[in-house]
Amino acid sequence: MQVILRQDVEKVGLRGEVVDVAAGFARNYLLPRRLAETATAAKVAELRKHEQKRARHEAQTFEQAQEIAGKLEGAELRFDVQAGETGTLFGSVTATDIAEQVWEVHRVRVDRRKLDLPDSIKRIGRYEVPVELFADVTASLRVAVVPEGGELPPQAELDAIAAAEAQAEAEAQAEAEAARAEAEAQLAEVTAEEEVEAEPEADAEQVPEDAFDRAADAPAPDEPQEK
C-alpha cells in the first residue's frame, strides 16, 4: 500500500515521501496517528509538482552552491519548541524541519538527506549542522533550538545540564546492568541446586551384574536341586 508521510517516521521515511508499507501497518498505525495519508494519484501529482518547483531553487552549479553557502552560513535558523526544565524537548527537531525552514526563510532548497544530522535534535541548545549543497561545496547551518517563550541560557549552563543528564543516564544504565547480572546469578544458582536435587542417589552397595545373575539363577532354599 502506498502512503504519503506527513511526518518523519523512523525506518519508514521522511515527511513528504511516497512509500510502500504493509496495509495493516498503514491502517493500524500510520493513518490513525495522522503520520501519513493515502497516496492517491491526485495527491502524488501535486506533491511531484511542488518538488519540481522547489528544485528550481536548488544549486545547479558549483558557483551557485558557493553563493548559497555564503548566504546560509551568515544566518541562524531558530526553532522555538516546548521543552522540560532540564532542556529535553517534548518532541524533536528533524532534518526535515531544518530543510523546511531553510526553504521558508531563505527560499533555498537543500536536500534533507544530505544534512549531517544522524539523530534528531532532542535538547535545547546551539548546533551546527553541515549540509552538502553541491560536489565539494558544504555549508554549516547554525541552528538554535530555544525553549518556547524564553531564550537560551549561556553555553556553559547548557553544557552543565547536558553533562548532568548524561551522568544520570549512565548511572541508571549501570544500576540496570548490575540488577540484571545479579538476577542472572541468582537464576544460575537456583538452576544448579535443582539439578543437584534431581540426580538419583547412589546405592550404598552395588551388586556386580554377574553376581546378581548367579543369585537370580540359584534355587530357593527349599527347592530340591536337580542332579
Outline the structure in words.
44% of the residues lie in helices and 20% in strands. It has six helices and eight strands. It has helices spanning 23-30, 41-55, 62-73, 95-106, 155-198, 209-217, and strands at residues 2-5, 18-20, 36-38, 76-81, 88-93, 121-123, 125-134, 137-147. The strands form three sheets. A three-stranded antiparallel beta sheet has the order 2-1-3, with no helix packed on it. A three-stranded mixed beta sheet has the order 4-8-7. It has a two-stranded antiparallel sheet with strand order 5-6. A hairpin with a 2-residue loop joins β7 (125-134) and β8 (137-147). The longest helix has 44 residues, at 155-198. The protein is extended. The N and C termini lie far apart (95 Å).
Which descriptors apply to this entry?
227 residues; alpha+beta; three-stranded antiparallel β-sheet; three-stranded mixed β-sheet; 6 helices; 20% strand; extended
Task: Please trace the helix and strand order, writing H or E for each element.
Answer: EEHEHHEEHEEEHH
By secondary-structure content and strand pairing, the structural class works out as: alpha+beta
Largest sheet: 3 strands, antiparallel
- Portion in helices: 40-55%
The shape, in one word, is: extended
Strands of the biggest beta sheet: in what spatial order? 2-1-3
Mean pLDDT: 83
Question: What is the distance, rounded to the nearest whole angstrom, between the alpha carbons of the first and last residues?
Answer: 95 Å
- Uncertain segments are none
The helix tally amounts to 6
Radius of gyration: 35 Å
